[in-house]
Design a protein that fits this description.
Chain lengths: 114, 117
């Protein structure tokens, strides 16, 4: 089955700096890669996703890049703010013409230092 | 819309007891799933369903049963609870076949924190 590795497990950056979280996946058939943000004691929420036919996607301060050849994808957050502090999870899935279960990475605890 | 709801929010069980975690959604989503979240382990898929009457196993199905008799409900049963099942359980739902205005986004419920002693 699919295996998703996520690094780093903890990332501390100064407010206003950029943060990058990286994930690798094992199954070359995976074609859907979402990122979820989870604040303490709350449910995960989707912040951005990308499909395998796209190399990059942006949404304001957040961007995701995908390298299918190397089987890795990354989350980039620019101009970080205190409210960006949370745990971020990457995930991968094979969408066989419909939604299927996600395989998650183990998460990155992002800490924004004031 | 209430979205995805889960009951109970907290539960303490003794080893060997059984219980059912409830999950319901009012978005007419075909796809529903159960995940467990343990510290440092991320979320792991237990079981999922692509529609009423259809269920399948995920990554960690042992010790859990599911059924899907309606589109709205997807209960998770623990037949004989074990301390290893102490975890936070999240139910999620999504469109199975997104159209141009919808996506594969998984909508998560608020979670059930289960402790087995």
């Amino acid at each position: 089955g699919e295996n998703v590795e996520q690094h780093p497990s903890t990332l501390s950056v100064q407010e206003g700096d950029s943060a990058v979280i990286k994930c690798t996946y094992s199954d070359s058939a995976s074609n859907y890669f979402p990122w979820y943000k989870q604040e303490l004691g709350k449910r995960p929420q989707l912040i951005i996703d990308i499909r395998s036919n796209v190399g990059e996607k942006k949404d304001q301060r957040i961007a995701v890049t995908l390298n299918k050849t190397a089987k890795h994808f990354s989350l980039h957050i620019t101009e970080t703010q205190p409210e960006d502090s949370a745990v971020y999870f990457c995930a991968a899935s094979i969408m066989r013409g419909g939604a299927d279960g996600l395989t998650f990475g183990k998460g990155t605890h992002l800490i924004i230092q004031p | 819309n209430a979205g995805v709801t889960q009951t109970p929010k907290f539960q303490v069980l003794k080893t060997g007891q059984s219980m059912t975690l409830q999950c319901a959604q009012d978005m007419n989503h075909e796809y529903m799933s159960w995940y467990r979240q343990d510290p440092g382990m991320g979320l792991r898929l237990i079981h999922y369903s692509v529609g009423a009457g259809i269920t399948d196993q995920g990554e960690v199905p042992n010790g859990y049963n599911v059924s899907r008799s309606t589109t709205e409900d997807f209960p998770l049963r623990l037949l004989s609870a074990a301390p290893s099942q102490t975890s936070v359980y999240f139910c999620a739902s999504s469109y199975r076949f997104p159209t141009g205005r919808t996506s594969y986004e998984q909508y998560f419920g608020p979670g059930t924190r289960l402790t087995v002693t």
